[in-house]
Amino acid sequence: MKSIKLKLWCSIMGITAVVILCFWLFQVILLEDLYLIKKQNKILSDTKSVAETINSSNDLQSLEYSLNSFAFQNNYCIEVTNLGGMTLGVFGISSENSILRNHFKLRQQVLQNILNSSQEYILQDGYSSVYGNRFYVGSTSQKSQTLGNYLLLIESELAPVHEAVNTTKTQLIYLSIILIVLSTFAAFMLSRTFTKPILKISQAAQQVAAGDLKVHVHIKSKDEIGKLSQDFNLMVREINKSSTLQKELVANVSHDIRTPLTMIKGYAEIIKDLTGDNKQKREEQLDVIIEESNRLNVLVNDILDLSRLQAGQITIQKTEFDLGVKLRDVMKRYRLLEINENFQFSLEAPEHCMVYADEVKIEQVLYNIINNATNHTGEDKKVMIALEENEQWATVKISDTGAGIKQEDMPLIWDRYYKPYKKKDRKGMGTGLGLSIVKAILSAHKYLFGVDSVLGKGSTFWFEIEKPAKPDVSHTKLLKK
After folding, report:
1. Torsion of CA 434, 436, 440, 446, to 10 degrees
2. 3-state SS assignment for residue 161
């Protein structure tokens, strides 16, 4: 497996190699060819331009001045001859430096090529002047009102590119060595900068895997690696929180299971050893066994329901049903609490309210929230249920008059077995999983829910249920017709 250091070094060295290659390609290998192509194109262009100037001029004095100025500006030797090769005028650099005027045969060859060609002609000489320089010659055959038929030759000295290339080669050798050294150093520093925090996060991840959930990565950078370290620390905190809740869940479930099992075992042994023949005591003790068995059954069912909901194994099957009728049916089942324990239940709801949801799951939500209210209401034992509706939503509100919930505890009350305060539980109190089940069901429906609470005055739990879409009236009338 290649390390980040090696990959980064290879990347930087690859970029450096491409840069060095481009330098060598354009400054050494192609420099002369590019220069000659550019020079050739310029001479051809200037030849046309000078010919147009001669052809359009009627004043020989001004023409001579223009040609001299143009020749000196561009370091040209401009020669105008008649068709027989007799010189009509030479402008620009001295004729002593002209290769054409110092090599008769070459001059004749160029003049002959001009006469035989209908287009501009370019000559790259294979000769050398007395100074050892090379030349380009641009030429053309023209006709003007002033000079009649004439031949135009523009001769230009070529720069000593070979010497420049040799000098550039030496410079590029040193430059290449410097770039390689700098690239290696830069790769080392960058790889160290990148890998050091990554190694910290890796070591911290190994500590978490070993069970240390108190680890914290200290990286102050504000780049993507800094963001990664923040996300890692957040992940560890959430894992720690989840682990703590899991331990509490196991402890609470163990305690809640152990209590009814102890009661069942204890009363069963009493019946067996002491009160088996006493019908009245036996029936009282059997009632306790049955009640604790029911409590144990409710706990197990709640744990299974919650696990299935959170695992997505229970699907939501929405149907239309009357929530107003459902609330009244649910409230009938709490009459025993009104009779036996003096609870006061009140319901404010329209006679009918059609909604669209999973009827069985919403009934489970109602029972869990009402049970939670009965477990935490005040000394007056009042529980208020209200149903409000608009065109799209029905809202159920269930209120108690208990101690209320602290603001910082509100996001946590939906966690399994979370208890912000302890209270003397009434007989038959719930399992502590009710609100977790409520959250799982309503989240699966994608319905809004929440709680409003004031310390010392009680809490109000609420949730919304979607109402069925109304049919298109115009479409209905059309069907009836």
Report:
1. 100
2. helix
The rounded distance, in Å, linking the Cα atoms of 441 and 424 is 28
* Continuous H helices in 210-277: 224-270
For the stretch 309-326, pLDDT in tens is 666 667 788 999 999 999
How do residues 265-306 score in pLDDT, each as one tens digit?
A: 887 887 777 776 777 877 877 887 887 787 777 777 777 776
Residue 460 β-bridge partners: 399, 452
Cβ contact 201:217 at 8 Å: yes
Contact 357, 393 (CB under 8 A): no
**Of 476, 405, 408, 457, which is closest to residue 435 (Cα–Cα)?**
405
For residues 317, 322, 323, 328, the Cα torsion angle rounded to the nearest 10 degrees is -130
Q: Which of 370, 333, 246, 249 is nearest to 299 (CA)?
A: 249
Tokens of 32: 């002369």
Say how far apart CA 100 and CA 81 lie, in whole Å.
13
User: Tell me: the pLDDT tens digits for 360-419?
Assistant: 889 889 988 998 899 889 999 999 999 999 889 999 999 999 988 888 888 778 875 555
